[in-house]
Amino acid sequence: MTADGRKTAPGPRGVPFLGNLPEFGKDPLAFFEQLRGRGDFVRWRFGRTNSLFIAHPETIGELLTEVERTFDQAELGIAFRTLLGDGVVVSRGADWRRKRSLVQPSVRPRQVKSYAATMAECAVDLAERWNDGQRVDIKKEMAALTQLIAVRTIFGVDTAADAEAIGRAMDVAQKEIGAEFSGIGAMLPDWVPTPGRARVKRATAVIDAEVSRIVARHRDGDSDRPDLLSRLLAAKDETGAHLSDKEIRDETVTLYIGGHETTSSTLVWAWYLLSRNPRVAEALGAELDRVLGDRDPGFDDYTELAYTQAVVKETLRLYPTVWLITAIAKEGAVLGGAPVPAGTRIWSSQWATHRDGRWFRDPLEFRPERWLTPGEGEEAEEIPEYAWYPFGGGPRVCLGTRFAMVEAVLILAVLARRFRLDVTAEEILPMPGLTLQPDREVLATVRDRPGRSRG
Ligand code: HEM
Q1: Cα 134 to averaged position of ligand 1 atoms, centre (Å)
Q2: Do 266 and 404 meet the contact criterion of CB atoms below 8 Å apart?
Q3: Domain of 227?
Q4: CA of 242: how far to CAs of 120, 237, 238, in Å?
Q5: Looking at residue 452, what is its pLDDT?
Q6: Based on the domain organization, do 311 and 454 belong to the same domain?
Q7: How far is the CA of 46 from the centre of ligand 1 (A)?
Q8: Pair 160, 45 in one domain
Q9: What is the 8-class DSSP label of residue 67?
Q10: Which of 65, 219, 263, 291 is 20 to 30 A off residue 311, Cα-Cα?
Q11: What positions belong to coiled-coil segments (predicted)?
């Protein structure tokens, strides 16, 4: 117990030098669940770093709203920084504020509306290629679909060759970043050359060349194109200055990396959960039939698709693709009414808090209804603020929240209106890397929904 009454529980006993790192490294999700079982504030050691795990929504809210003031975001690894340059995710302080305010207008709801048509079109193209009885690898299909949408909405490229060149290089870089994030690479000093870091450098060089070609084409041509890059080219800071070519490159790559795998993994988990919960799949189909009838959805249907939105929210609760947020305490940091020594690393995990029975009734059940206004005679589930925070919160809340929600809802609406996907595997486990990914390919059989074989 601290002087101010905050109860801090001791974590599991660690080993010399490494602290609790071996248990954390072996299974971080189970480790955080174990810490949550010990209390809302738990001390542990990440190597030599004194760490504090927090599990209570109120404290998570305090942390998120204080980032950029009494807490600093933890530094991202070298592979990340090589690829993202000085983009908004990597920067801090005044530099971060400037960048965030320059990028934000390009992902406002009004702009997302203009990307929605591309999202739906790409999903319809995929639907046209699927047939009853076909076997598909959902992980591959969703990754290819969200990649195409990202390349088109961010860079505005229409040719398959351009989309493929960028996509391939991004895939290589993203894989290495994920490997470094979850592996021993995270512990190595920046100057240590590893084969993975060399691969990131090579992929980054390809991306740089592609992006600079695309930027030059945009500068020469029509400035009124409906893509994110055009909006960034038009953006001005408070002094009237435009973003430099290097800044444009860093922000477009950041938006791509921030948005691609997070959204595609969310969709894979949604299909997996729908396949295991036929009652929910049926309720989803019923909403799509009622709202859309025989047509494909557009942006204007988003608000009406309340159950589809709830399916996405509930998927993000059980499988939060960003599963960990960590920050470092600065002088004057306070959590739960008690001071936190400067340098302490704070850890919170969406995985642990989203599955806490104190905030969610039957926490392991996939029940989208918990997000809807209850019907007659049903009791509303009171979900505290920050008990669900898949997009973070506070000043650094995800810039792509609206983009991601609209994209996931439209893709599900296009595909689930026509098909059911029967996932073959009994149980698929989450693998925590940069995002929470299924631990293997997710094979499924496509089944036409009765009476809905073609749109
Ligand atoms: C389901 C999909 C997504 C999830 C779960 C997600 C989650 C998050 C989270 C948790 C953060 C805050 C991280 C922190 O505080 O440490 C974040 C930041 C960010 N996200 Fe997303 N995101 C998603 C989709 C997107 C999309 C589609 C875009 C771009 C179009 C995007 C762009 C960003 C950017 C630029 C930031 C950094 C904001 C800043 O540092 O000020 N995200 N995201």
Answers
A1: 34
A2: yes
A3: 96-317+390-455
A4: 32, 7, 10
A5: 65
A6: yes
A7: 25
A8: no
A9: B
A10: 65
A11: none
Expressed in angstroms and rounded, the spacing between residue 266 Cα and the centre of ligand 1 is 13
Q: Pocket of ligand 1, candidates 151, 396, 398: which has the most ligand atoms within 8 Å of its Cβ, to mutate?
A: 398
Rounded to whole angstroms, the Cα distance separating 30 from 373 reads 33
Both 52 and 102 in a single domain?
Answer: no
- Please count the CA atoms within 13 angstroms of the CA of 294 that sit on its side-chain side: 5
Given ligand 1 and candidates 391, 406, 412, 434, which is best to mutate, with the most ligand atoms within 8 Å of its CB? Answer: 391
Residue 150: inside a domain, yes or no? yes
- CA angle (286, 144, 365) in 5-degree steps: 40
The dihedrals phi and psi of 432, each to the nearest 5 degrees, come to -80, 110
Residue recorded with tokens 């000043």: 395
Co-location of 18 and 162 in the same domain: no
Instruction: ipTM value, please give it.
Output: 0.99
User: For residues 318 and 295, what is the distance between their CA atoms, to the nearest angstrom?
Assistant: 30
Same-domain status, 329 and 298:
no
Let me know if residue 31 belongs to a domain: yes
Q: Give the model's pLDDT for residue 3.
A: 47
Does residue 112 sit within a domain?
Answer: yes
Number of domains in the chain: 2
For residue 429, being part of any structural domain is answered with: yes
Consecutive 10-residue runs of the chain (455 residues): their mean pLDDT? 69 87 90 95 91 97 95 83 89 92 91 94 96 96 93 81 78 77 67 82 87 84 75 88 91 90 96 97 97 96 97 98 95 94 96 98 96 83 96 96 97 98 90 89 94 56
Positive or negative CA dihedral for 9, 10, 11, 12? negative
Residue 436 forms beta bridges with which residues?
432
Indicate the residue type of 62: E
Paired tokens of 308: 């589809």
Q: What is the CA radius of gyration of the chain?
A: 22
Distance of CA 13 to the CA centre of its chain: 32
Backbone φ/ψ region at 218: left (φ over 0), alpha (ψ -120 to 50), beta = alpha
Q: Are residues 117 and 146 in the same domain?
A: yes
Same domain, 125 and 224: yes
Q: What is residue 455's predicted lDDT score, i.e. its pLDDT?
A: 47
C-beta separation of 268 from 442 below 8 A: yes
Q: Please check whether residues 149 and 254 belong to one and the same domain.
A: yes
Residue 403 CA, closest ligand 1 atom number: 27
Integer Cα distance of 430 and 354 in angstroms: 15
